[in-house]
Amino acid sequence: MIKILVLHGPNLNMLGVREREYYGTESLQDINARLTEMAGAEGAALEARQSNNEGDLVSWIQEARNRFDAIVINPAAYTHTSIALRDAVLSAGVPTVEVHLSNPHQREGFRRRSYLAGAAIGQISGFGALSYHLGVRAALEHLKQAGAART
Known about the structure:
It is a single chain. The protein has 151 residues and is of the alpha/beta class. The protein has one domain: Rossmann fold (3-Layer(aba) Sandwich), CATH 3.40.50. It has helices spanning 20-23, 28-41, 54-64, 83-92, 130-150, and strands spanning 2-8, 44-50, 70-74, 96-100, 122-125. A five-stranded parallel beta sheet has the order 2-1-3-4-5, sandwiched between helices. Strand 3 (70-74), helix 4 (83-92) and strand 4 (96-100) form a beta-alpha-beta unit.
């Protein structure tokens, strides 16, 4: 069974409350429930975690190496600051999809740089909670294609 780890960065535990014009009204619990349901329908298992601490995210990425087939991550503000997350993704070697609820290119200039983008297999942004769903689907499709390439 394919296993996907979904990681949510800082302040995403406040979804549904904070800056609704950018992040929508859906709570993180609602997003996780829908992702888990979608993954199950595809025959995959999904585990979701959130932390406001960069070190937790780095540790979870490293631990994913032997436990998960793909990672879908919204690094939130760490997108623009964390070389540590980038290095963790590169060293773990787990296919990773970067997602964002809002479109960073339509916001402040400092949000346009992602340290993680070059280490990820792809990036999806600007579609609200749908960005996560598209990210999980992209990870599943990537894994299917990679499996087909091995046979």
